[in-house]
Automatic annotation (TrEMBL):
Top-level taxon in the UniProt lineage: Bacteria
Name this polypeptide is given: FemAB family XrtA/PEP-CTERM system-associated protein
A Pfam family per the record: Acetyltransf_6
Species assigned in the record: Massilia aerilata
Gene3D superfamilies referenced in this protein's UniProt entry, alphabetically: 3.40.630.30
PANTHER family in alphabetical order: LIPID II:GLYCINE GLYCYLTRANSFERASE (PTHR36174)
Domain BioF2-like acetyltransferase, chain residue ranges per copy: 173-307
Amino acid sequence: MNSIIEAAVTKRTAPATAAGPLTLHLMQPQDRTRWDAFVRACPEATFFHLSGWQQVIEASFGIKTWFYFVEQDGQIQGVLPLAEIKSRLFGHSLGAMPFCVYGGPAATNEAARPLLDQAAHELAQQLGVGHLEYRGMRRFHPIDPNWHTKELYVTFRKEISGDDEENLNAIPRKQRAMVRKGIKLGLKGVVEDNVDRMFEAYAHSVHRLGTPVFPKKYFALLQKTFGDECEVRTILTEKDELVGSVLSFYWRDEVVPYYGGGMDIARNVAGNDFMYWNLMQAAAARGCRIFDFGRSKLGTGAYDFKKNWGFTAEHLPYEYKLYGATALPDNNPLNPKYQLFIKMWKKLPLPLANFMGPYIVRNLG
């Protein structure tokens, strides 16, 4: 037989090499590049699975993290970032991930999921937490009675096109009128290389709501860590007065406005309405085709605002596995036991609230 043909036949008929075992690992600094390459290629992974969140969360809040991955034959098959929150006031938990709207295991090999689950289970037991939490856009354990979910959060996601007029006309009439008001008043959006004005607008807004503020260094670290995928867009009047600002993430063909706020003037000039429209315009021009308005709690003003844009709410089925706790967590501003705290917080001078807020918010996740 011709040697070339013989080699081809041998190659075609030789048995495939058996795949190696699946092994569990903790991400090390040298693993970050391939971790992120996997996350970017994995269909069910999100921006919040990127390795940069480990540096941001640990440096901003002093919170301990564990970034697990499963490997086979040198290739990552699944990842699960976790972080611990330990607070006398708000409880002890292990979650994927605090300060992130989405989390939980992301895998391309179904056999990797049980290894990631087992790692989280063993770590939760070792730490003695009250509960373990996954933040998925779908249920990971729909028939497992050890995992619980509750109706609290929704997310708002909508397709957009590359045509501004088409996107504007897709906004319901009353909301569209507010956007046009901002346009008529000459509002403008600028992209900034720092978080100074963004933090000012954000801190002003959350203080008005009675919510503790995140530390300014957290926003600066987000911008530094994620580079072009993290944009700070500030809205100004024709006279360059600060109206509002929003920090957004760009992920694949999506834009995710994540932290934002407005000054008092924003109410008079439809500042928040214009801000999100201006962001939608910029994102569409950048090639984004999904506008992810992010997480909101049922029954809140943010929920109503997003619905007014014509977005449809999708349930976010966060999952909880109880360990030391006897009930599901309820650390949110709608909980009646926090109402007095919220009223008192609104009365604090803004500089004092900005000083104290970071010490409290790190325990909320």
